[in-house]
């Protein structure tokens, strides 16, 4: 049901982002990734398809496939993540307090989650076509104590928020909460949850906070490469249950990613482009 027709979109003339002097990972570009075997491409593009076979027939798959853009749309979205002289992608500024946050007009998305859940790695993955954009990935939990703003031309801004849960609950109260309440141009919040360990207490607190704030948010399940598929599926179904029972502002589809292997990165790029109004999807129906 997820059969892909790749060839029509691999015509010459489609702009491929080649990146800068620094080396670009071979999977950073979707167009390059589509030269892999169809099965590999399938799991890169739609990581949930890997798990689908393990699901009992009785489980409703619909919530996992609500956002299912075509390859063409994903290629279109990818162009936004290529820096050009007229569409610059760069680290803009950091802010330690909400009143230091830059006043920006373009739609914004932010990444929140526990320290070490993979926020910075994910942003690095999204910007992997422009490796010159410096996104710090820390080995020490709680490193990101500031809000880091990255501009994607005039299209949108991505904000890497300080992590919470590990020696940093204060950052959460001081920065994350006020930001989520007051940021006018915030189009979507991405709440990251580590798929290899499942929902933790701190995640549930964050979830409750997002519910209280009542702005639309989406759960991104990170590090899906780090555990077996059985464990991942168990964590995912538990998460799905919590989302169904306890949330009203959460998008029902969790987005599965591995920043290490690029699984789900293209889908998330497209999702961000879509929710910020930067692209118009041509087809969201299942292929
Ligand atoms: N296996 C695996 N490790 C990851 C992934 N994403 C991040 N990590 C690792 O998790 C650690 C924390 O990542 P980081 O992006 O700094 O987390 P942050 O504190 O939320 O910004 C780092 O050692 C990363 O290399 C992933 O998709 N798979
Ligand atoms: Mg970080």
From TrEMBL:
<dbReference type="InterPro" id="IPR006073">
    <property type="entry name" value="GTP-bd"/>
</dbReference>
<feature type="domain" description="EngB-type G">
    <location>
        <begin position="105"/>
        <end position="278"/>
    </location>
</feature>
<protein>
    <recommendedName>
        <fullName>GTP-binding protein 8</fullName>
    </recommendedName>
</protein>
<dbReference type="InterPro" id="IPR052279">
    <property type="entry name" value="EngB_GTPase"/>
</dbReference>
<keyword id="KW-0342">GTP-binding</keyword>
<dbReference type="GO" id="GO:0005525">
    <property type="term" value="F:GTP binding"/>
</dbReference>
<dbReference type="InterPro" id="IPR027417">
    <property type="entry name" value="P-loop_NTPase"/>
</dbReference>
<dbReference type="GO" id="GO:0046872">
    <property type="term" value="F:metal ion binding"/>
</dbReference>
<dbReference type="GO" id="GO:0005739">
    <property type="term" value="C:mitochondrion"/>
</dbReference>
<dbReference type="InterPro" id="IPR019987">
    <property type="entry name" value="GTP-bd_ribosome_bio_YsxC"/>
</dbReference>
<dbReference type="Pfam" id="PF01926">
    <property type="entry name" value="MMR_HSR1"/>
</dbReference>
<keyword id="KW-0479">Metal-binding</keyword>
<keyword id="KW-0460">Magnesium</keyword>
<keyword id="KW-0547">Nucleotide-binding</keyword>
<comment type="similarity">
    <text>Belongs to the TRAFAC class TrmE-Era-EngA-EngB-Septin-like GTPase superfamily. EngB GTPase family.</text>
</comment>
<dbReference type="InterPro" id="IPR030393">
    <property type="entry name" value="G_ENGB_dom"/>
</dbReference>
